[in-house]
Amino acid sequence: MTELNPFIKLRRELHLIPEIGYEEVKTQHFLLTYIASLPQDRLEIKKWRTGILVRVAGLSPTKTIGYRTDIDALPILEETGLAFASTHHGKMHACGHDCHMSIALGLLTHFASQPIKDNLLFVFQPAEEGPGGAKPIMESEEFQAWWPDMMLGLHIAPEYKAGEIAVKPGLLFANTSELFISFKGKGGHAAYPHLANDMVVAASAFVGQMQTIISRNIDPLDSAVITIGQIRGGDVQNVIAENAYLDGTIRTLSTETMDIVWTRLKQLAKGWEEAYQCEVSFTPGSDYRQVDNDEAETLQFISYLQENYPESYVACKEAMTGEDFGYFLEKIPGFMFWLGVDSEYSLHHAKLNPDEAAIPFAIDVLTRYLESL
């Protein structure tokens, strides 16, 4: 029987204990315990909330190269049937952050004992899925003291095969904004709708109307998406709902388009208040910057792939995916790339099952790449 790759094994152990944003207590403990097992003579370790920063001192440093992994999970009930499925009911690493962490640990393990010329900074960042950990960790004293000169990151991609890496200069991921809308009207008896203001009706109509923003207010050659992922309203089947709630997300390829969407949403809300005799309010959520890959750094990485892994490189287009890694790239040159994991099910799906062969492959690619720098 072939022995399981140690970093695939770590991935499976992490998959057992998924935790959502800023609740990654077990995850942090697991990571710190493993990091403590590595040679410590060149390591400096700092905690930030439920995250961790680890600096590997270079042999004769002239710069610091940053590598970020996210560590949180999603509030999803796992349906994979795997032997190492989540032990935390209703929580799952359905976005591949367990894979991301194991790859980062593979890199850290190598460079803890075989340091390169320059400093390396490993950022184990919480709360990527929400409310967003990148911006606050960048603003922390811990990160500011070890500010890197470039920043790298990856995200698994079920649509690409294991052994493939997809990347492009410039825009890779969209701007994203969480959307939480509340409707407050007047409840009443189901048999007397004329004496009430039904918020299930108001909210349902709003869902359809907001899609006209995309079809009639956004340039057809531009791209934007409004998705409502959750509708809540009412408590009993024979009572007209006094309150209703819409939770969703907005994705755009530019900040200007995001501004247009939000302006039109608020204008529609004012009209809804008049038409349905209700109050419409927006609850602030997380906003994520677009992931805009630095051209020079990305082209250098592409050249490295073409020379060393010619069958692995895939040119790709931008996606409407959201990632708070964009906050790093707003201030620090660098890039993010897609790592193929060849899964039948998409990101955020309860049956997502990445091809674990991608883990040692990514460790090999990035180890050699960092050494080449």
From TrEMBL:
Coiled-coil zones: none
| Cofactor binding remark | The Mn(2+) ion enhances activity.
What cofactors does this protein use? Answer: Mn(2+)
Q: Which residues are in the Peptidase M20 dimerisation domain? A: 181-270
List its EC numbers: 3.5.1.47
**Per its UniProt entry, what is the enzyme's top EC class, as one word?**
hydrolase
Per UniProt, which keywords does this protein have?
A: Amino-acid biosynthesis, Diaminopimelate biosynthesis, Hydrolase, Lysine biosynthesis, Manganese, Metal-binding
Binding locations of Mn(2+) = C95, H97, E129, H155, H348
* Pfam families associated with the record: M20_dimer, Peptidase_M20
Q: Which GO terms describe its molecular function?
A: metal ion binding; N-acetyldiaminopimelate deacetylase activity
Gene Ontology biological process terms, A to Z:
diaminopimelate biosynthetic process; lysine biosynthetic process via diaminopimelate
Catalytic reactions of this protein: N-acetyl-(2S,6S)-2,6-diaminopimelate + H2O = (2S,6S)-2,6-diaminopimelate + acetate
The annotated active site, in chain numbering, is D70, E129 (proton acceptor)
Pathway assignment? Amino-acid biosynthesis; L-lysine biosynthesis via DAP pathway; LL-2,6-diaminopimelate from (S)-tetrahydrodipicolinate (acetylase route): step 3/3
Role summary:
Catalyzes the conversion of N-acetyl-diaminopimelate to diaminopimelate and acetate.
Query: Which family would the database say this protein is a member of?
Result: Belongs to the peptidase M20A family. N-acetyldiaminopimelate deacetylase subfamily.
* Name this polypeptide is given: N-acetyldiaminopimelate deacetylase
**Source species of the chain:** Listeria weihenstephanensis
Lineage start: Bacteria, Bacillati, Bacillota, Bacilli, Bacillales
